Amino acid sequence: MKKGLTILSMLLSVLLLASVALAGGTIKIGVVEPLSGTFKDVGDRYLEGVKYAAKMINQNGGLLGKKVEVIPMDSELKPAVAVRKATKMIMKDGVKFFMGGTGSSVGGAMAVLAAKKNAIMVTYGMEAASMTGEKCCRNFFRTCANSDNHSYALANWVAESGYKKVFCIAQDYSFGQQATQAFLDKLKELDPSIEIVGKVMHPIGTKDFAPYVSQIIAAKPQVVFTPNWGSDLTLLLKQAKPLGLKAKFACYFLNDENAITAVSNDEAVIGSVTAETYMVTIPTEANQKFVAQFKKSEGYYPTWLRGKAYLAANFLFKAIEKAGTTDVDKVISAWEGLVYDSPAGKMTMRACDHQNQTPVWIAEIVKDNPYFKHAYVGKALEVAPDKIAVPCAKTGCKGLGR
């Protein structure tokens, strides 16, 4: 009986200490995502990743002895709406830290606001290279790859796999154009003998890909590169196989279980490859532990967007821990050069442009996997940061306003 009372007393003491540890106020994180409309699913999954990171750190005593509070904010994917709502959160709620992954235009507007109000904006998914290039900002950090890194990783895979004939198809706007050009530049650098047998830039929201697929088939490529996303990815893949295209696809965003199910034909995706900074199949012990814990806690896997947001939140937390304060200037200084041994590999926040130097992982879509009944990514292979990095002098970033 006495032993039982002693154990109970110890448990109550631990709970009391945890309560005291989290009694010193809160650290608020504003999550800027489309939480309504067409891209609600994307925003929701990103938000789930940030919430899980906050949940885990709070269960372990909080951040600097304070509770991390995640405040969702519906950007509606509109820069003006995001800025208006974020300004209110800064002025009324004292929010200093914002995160978001959807819409580079939203991210650009948030970076300007963060600089004006001396807050920090972090993106785990906005890939426009210019954001850490010519539009770089002291108050903006990117934890994911940018479009140059992403394209370079797929170019490395094509060159190292020995393919000699490549076709490119992409959405005809700034992102698709930049991603494709970066892929072509890197491919030429790695292996000038690789032949680009065709390139198509098509309107966003294309419904009929048959003319483009016919053009691809006539060019006889071994690999088709595409940074397409959304319905332009799923419809391209859905229509290509029945029309007779046999080439593999090298995709930016086929690490999305929702995209694969939208194609509705496993045979249309099996054998193609995808690249990303986070996949559940990254074969590190730390990642497998993370995946198991997340699944047990939340009931679903930390696939793609959730994993990227979780890693980003943890990286921010480590910068705040290192700074020992939530003072924005000190957190910025602490984050520059900081190294985080994440479940997805070592991440280093480069001081010159605030672009995270991180591995990108390549995986083939396979039929049998332990996560879903449909096809999904197989074992991920690492493309090291030094193979995909853009030197500071070539990014276009002229300084971070120090």
Report on the architecture of this protein.
The protein has 402 residues and is an alpha/beta fold. The protein folds into two domains: 2-145 and 284-358, Rossmann fold; 148-276 and 360-388, 3-Layer(aba) Sandwich (Rossmann fold), CATH 3.40.50. Helix content is 43%, strand content 19%. The chain has 13 helices and 16 strands. The chain has helices at 2-21, 40-59, 79-93, 104-117, 147-161, 174-190, 210-219, 231-240, 257-263, 285-298, 305-323, 328-335, 385-388; strands at residues 26-33, 67-74, 97-100, 120-123, 140-142, 165-171, 195-202, 223-226, 248-251, 273-276, 339-342, 345-349, 356-357, 360-366, 376-377, 381-383. Strands 6, 7, 8, 9, 10, 14, 15 and 16 form an eight-stranded mixed beta sheet that branches. Strand 1, helix 2 and strand 2 form a beta-alpha-beta unit. The chain is globular and about 65 Å long. The N and C termini lie far apart (64 Å). Residues 1-23 have low confidence and may be disordered.
User: What is the H-and-E element order?
Assistant: HEHEHEHEEHEHEHEHEHEHHHEEEEEEH
CATH class of the largest domain: Alpha Beta
What percentage of the residues does DSSP assign to strands (E)?
15-25%
User: Helical amount among residues, as a percent range?
Assistant: 40-55%
CATH topology of the largest domain: Rossmann fold
Q: Please compute the radius of gyration using only Cα atoms.
A: 22 Å
Distance between the termini: 64 Å
Q: What characterizes the major β-sheet?
A: 8 strands, mixed
Mean pLDDT over all positions = 93
**Count, helices:** 13
Low-pLDDT runs of 5+ residues are 1-23
Structural class: alpha/beta
According to CATH, the homologous superfamily of the largest domain is: Response regulator
The CATH architecture assignment of the largest domain turns out to be 3-Layer(aba) Sandwich
Number of strands: 16
Shape: globular
How many structural domains does the protein architecture include? 2
